[in-house]
Amino acid sequence: MSSAIDMEERAKARIEAEVQNLLDPDAFQLSEGNEKVLLRQKSYIDELEMDVDEEQELKEKKEKLWKLLCTYLPCDVLSLQKSIVQHVEYTLARRRYKRDKCSFYQATAISVRDRLIERWTDTQQYLSSKDSKRVYYLSLEYLLGRNLQNAMSCLALRNRYAAALEELGYSLEELTEEERDPGLGSGGLGRLASCFLDSLATLNFGAWGYGLRYKFGLFEQRLISKAQAEFPDFWLKEGYPWEVERPDVQYLVRMYGEVEDRVDPETGEVKVAWKGGEDVLAEGFDIPVPGFHTLNTNNLRLWTSKASCEFDLGSFNDGQYYAAIEEKERSEPLTSVLYPCDNNAPGKELRLRQQYFFVSATLQDILRRYKKSPSHGLLDLPNKVAIQLNETHPAIAIPELMRLLLDDENLCWQDAWHIVHNTCAYTNHTVMPEALEIWPLPLVEQILPRHLRIIYEINHQFLSEVRRRWPGDPQRVARMSIIEESEPKMVKMAHLAIIGCHKVNGVAQVHTGLLCKSLFRDFYEMWPEKFVNITNGVNHRRWMLQANPAMSAVISKWLGTHDWVHDLGRLERLKELSSNPEFQRDWQEMKRYNKRKLAEFIERTCDVDVDADAMFDVHVKRIHEYKRQFMNILGVAYRYLRILSLLAEEKFDELRQVVPKVVIFAGKAAPNYSVAKDVIKLIIAIADTINSDTRIGGLLKVVFIPNYNVSVAEVIIPGSDLSQHISTAGFEASGTSNMKFCMNGSLLLGSRDGANLEIEQSVGRANIFMFGANTKEVRTLQTTMQYRKPQLDGRLAHVTQEIRSGRFGPTSFDSLVDSLLPENDRYMVGHDFGSYLEALEVSDAAFRKPEEWTAKTIVSCASMSRFSSDRCIREYAEKIWNVEPHQFRPPNKNTSSSSNNNNP
Ligand code: NBG
């Protein structure tokens, strides 16, 4: 048996190596001697040419400099080895003879980064020479995941690095494990931003991401005393080898102070001056973002806060030396910590200051770059720059860009507004009232007095237009105002964003429908053309190729090509093979291999032994009431009780029909969200009871995998059979893990919500298990109690009784259980429970027929092209940004010495 497993392992390892060979085409390599010919004419050296000087001596110096810079770094195995050991010794100052995985990981990363940097510099220079329109993606969150394998694959250097490391006594896999996930985001919104960056680079769009370099990422979750415990996630502990600090990129950001009207003595014009306040220094850190098999390399610029170096000299002279320095040092913590904001309002003053700090530094940077070209007039900005606001978190960009244009650039209001409005666009990611950002007006006034003035003026002009269009409708005016007349007054960031942007998009059809029909209905009536839908997508190269090499190998083998990696539509051809027994065998083996890997991971992280032949039923995402992990665990408890009663009644035929199952949960609860934390406790309590009950044998196991993040997702998703996306209809804007699971040959059990509905259209009703009330029904149920079932489903009542009775341990879960009562059931857990159990039964029945199940998973996977972030980015480019790709092509080796021109 064990030798059979060894053989299987070896076969899989071979298959994985094969796919990597396919994906590292030699044709793409740059090798030593490849001149950076494209840039020969407009090179760094020419930039030295401040004043035209034809002196022979200067020419010679420039020629020398050019020769030193003009070739790309070599990428043969020996050169890679040299670069790695040099970085160990000279960059990191460690001993290269000592076996030290951490140093070798870092040195390898820096060696890869060197190769990215040259492509990145050239791409930027190339794009400037084309004067192409740039996209700037502003997001307070990114979940980048590990970068090592991704960057190597993009460069088509994975095999060479693997070989180089192998000869030095390291495996690429073990070094990969040394990389820590930068936890700069909290959930789907941040991961989406990262998928977008990858697709933007791969599709050759000149686009930069901007964000904050939080010192502490989203907390590290551990399970202590059967509950979630939060620990600081100091992801920078060992340094982050992918970033480049930019002490040359610094901006001052002012907050607080007061505004004053000043009359220009010459023109009589009233100008507003913002005085006093505190300055914080923003410094950029750049992370190159490579595209897959293209030279184009974009940038992610993250800001960190620093003390500004402008001291109050008076304090020094008064002998207050230390006090003056301490005062300045206090600005450092601004970017220390990420507030988890996934559908929870953090309500922190610091968060508003972070948002403004981020936006101000970013806009100053964008304007500086734009103005570098002498031909660029400010009025032309919307033709050259597109700014995308990821949620309202960066919405303060609207008044900040106005301020920069009015106060610093001296434009008039109309011109400034024209520019802002046509440059910015806003993506909405939630309709949940508690997640819509509103800030107390007094707080905005205190931190950003100048911006509040601008917001008032925007609101004034906007409401005048509303009054003109709907005379005699004061309720409408009140509803649409940016300022909510509550006590204290509040500033509604979503309204500000809608008014200030030329496009607003939702992230799935049903979600955009809700924006237009309910949440932003007034605005939709006013500007229907402003609203567009762009259904989310995910980067299939990370989620299939990188996370699931075994599946990628099977796909490439059966398609005879790996062109699907560039165009997911090519997978369609797998559908006709879905019943082919040999293909099915390969596919099933692949799934088993991934499940075994996941089982090992579960053993390591949860100390629970699970059987890879059981159905792996997975529910992983942030823990939230609307995502209904609670409903899932109640269903698990029901399954357990049912197995026990079948045992007690000795109904062996029925027992034989029970599908053995491993139920896998993972996800973080916001530290201050006690209901979500109670749900985790309940999951752990029920899991402990079930896992230690020897009577049920291997029929049911439940695990909660701690500290869910991108890397953990890369292990879990490929190993799943069924995955649950069961949010209350109307609450999950889109969901993106649903797409990742389908791409990995896992079937969905889903509610009629978000992108589930579009996935259903793509994969076909027979290949997805849908259940529960739809958006409209939920609406009715929420507003009219009379439609609610007066009593709990009998099965649910039984489960809740058992929970209350202490069957799952002494902790009281009464308040959770009370939330199920029809009058409290905001998330329709009680209401949907019956149809949920039925959907589970249908999925069990399907799993009992392996061939049919396999065919379903193949068809699902092959139907996913719509959900690639490549499609999504093309839609943004066309519908919102109006930008074209510009590919910086590899220099042609054969013509490199003769063609000294700029034509790609
Ligand atoms: C989340 C939604 C998800 C959606 C992602 C990405 C926020 C505010 N929203 O449903 O809840 O998939 O955004 O669009 O985090």
From TrEMBL:
User: Cross-referenced Gene3D superfamilies, in alphabetical order?
Assistant: Glycogen Phosphorylase B (3.40.50.2000)
Q: Which residues carry this modification: N6-(pyridoxal phosphate)lysine?
A: 740
Q: What reaction does this enzyme carry out catalytically?
A: [(1->4)-alpha-D-glucosyl](n) + phosphate = [(1->4)-alpha-D-glucosyl](n-1) + alpha-D-glucose 1-phosphate
Q: Which superkingdom, per the lineage?
A: Eukaryota
InterPro entries to which the protein is assigned, alphabetical:
Glycg_phsphrylas, Glyco_trans_35, Pyridoxal_P_attach_site
Kindly list the cofactors needed. pyridoxal 5'-phosphate
- Set out the biological process GO terms recorded for this chain's protein: glycogen catabolic process
Give the family per the record: Belongs to the glycogen phosphorylase family.
Q: What does this protein do?
A: Allosteric enzyme that catalyzes the rate-limiting step in glycogen catabolism, the phosphorolytic cleavage of glycogen to produce glucose-1-phosphate, and plays a central role in maintaining cellular and organismal glucose homeostasis.
Protein name, UniProt field: Alpha-1,4 glucan phosphorylase
Biological source species:
Chloropicon primus
